Fold this sequence. Notes:
Blueprint: E1 4-9, H1 15-24, E2 28-33, E3 36-41, H2 43-52, E4 58-67, H3 71-80, E5 93-99, H4 107-126, E6 139-145, E7 149-155, H5 177-186, E8 195-197, H6 204-213, H7 234-246, E9 256-260, H8 263-275, E10 282-286, E11 299-303, H9 313-331, E12 335-341, H10 346-350, E13 356-362, E14 365-373
Parallel strand pairs: 5-6, 8-9, 8-11, 9-10, 11-12
Antiparallel strand pairs: 1-3, 1-4, 2-3, 4-7, 6-7, 12-14, 13-14
Amino acid sequence: MAPNRYFATCPRxxxxxxxxELEQVGAKSVKSTDGGASFDGDWAVCYAANLHSRIATRIMxxxxxxxxxxxxxxxxxxxxLNWPQWFDVRHDFMVKVTGVxxxxxxxxxxxxxxxxxxxxxxxxxxGSRPYIDTKMPAVRIHAYxxxxxxxxxxxxxxxxxxxxxxxxxxxxxxxxxxxxxxxxKLSGWQAGQPLLDPMCGSGTFLLEAAMVALGMPPGINRSFxxxxxxxxxxxxxxxxxxxxxKKVKKVSFxxxxxxxxxxxxxxxxxxxxxxxxxxxxxxxxHVDIVNAIPPADHGVLVxxxxxxxxxxxxxxxxxxxxxxxxxxxxxxxxxxxxxxxNDLRMPKLMRLTPSKRTPLFNGPLxxxxxxxxxxxxxxxx
Length: 381
């Protein structure tokens, strides 16, 4: 049997990390492209990728591809496929269409045509049609339209994979979990090394680091889209999940430290860690970054400073950065620090020189991950 073809999406800038992860779970012919990677494998590989990938956003199974000129062609292409062999008429579904250099006037109309084709096919096969649900569908169909080629996918993930099933509360615009996991990887941090997030917000870095340190797969506490498909191999999934669960370490302190100037943020981080059963892995304190004391003589510091979104915040941040720079120089010699921000003035205002600037996207926001190595007595402009 020929293997299945899949496509995994991820935050832009993390494609190479995604490729490494997919290869680790046994994916074949892995090829990265902007915002994701295609790969081949059986269902076990698909299940393992959903369970273990910290970087992927979704993993989709390709069910068709071909050429098209107009909406009618898309209707025909979708109608040709045997949807009832892949999912049950009782499951509601949605269709999401993404176009890149797509010549069609309206993606909404293309979406409608594909939806109609699926429903017509069900009517023909079983005499009734599945309902549409755009909020929480059991089954998601994705269509990617290029200039003259279409690709149809069935989503094997369900809710986006960065929804680990453990973060309840958040403050403002939180960092997506898969982006946080990617930044931890890019920082070179390893389990067992001291890690500090002095602007911990709702605790995303802390949660992701605790899961890595304890060998806990990101998907261990959630369900997946593949469980709703007729192709679902429940024995294979149980085996993969049980093997992974056996390797999870008992929760104990992992030299992961979080703090924030905002007491509300510290409380929310605590709630989220508690809900995930990971509170004992982390030490939380209520302190401003300027007064933060390094918990060890070396380690990795990661932070996603607040963005100056509201009027007046830009000036406040501009005043904070030099103080942050001073505090880092005074106290954090021997630490490698990483700041994700869309404020490109940050290192200059901190009067520190980054050794790396990695472009990353936090949702639609283009950001930089600045790496600043705090060497004793140097780094001053």
